[in-house]
Amino acid sequence: MPQLSLHSPIGPLTLTEEDDKIISLDWGWGRDQTETPMLCAARDWLDTWFDDPKAAGDFPFPLEPIFGTDYQKRVWNALCAIPVGTVKTYKELAQDVGGSARSVGQAVGRNPIPILIPCHRIVSQTGLGGYSGDGGIDDKRWLLNLEGAPIPSGS
To answer: How far is it, in rounded angstroms, from Cα 61 to Cα 46?
Structure first.
């Protein structure tokens, strides 16, 4: 599977492609680097997004998470519908997709394509909640600040 890494304000990131779809985004620099048209365009979009998320627009390429249950994929699809600069709580997302705040939290934590499937836009009712990025909550706070999203009190 072709991979391409990029430098970002929150550290190195690696995109992985399969069958002309982005299947994962991981923290860290990938061992193998392959410049496919899809990966180069996705890298360029991310560079633009890190400069100005609102100007970048929606991610224009197909996403196909490398794994996930039907429920997790339903949660991830719902995450993609949350606009830049907006947050929802785990409970609100659970009301949208079914399940509980806890099951939504578990699905969000297993998101294989963070940032592009914007799991950073989900917060708890009393704070930021968790984040699976390399920098944890600091990355989540940074991403929300970049988007101009409200940071919950107590965070």
So the answer is: 12
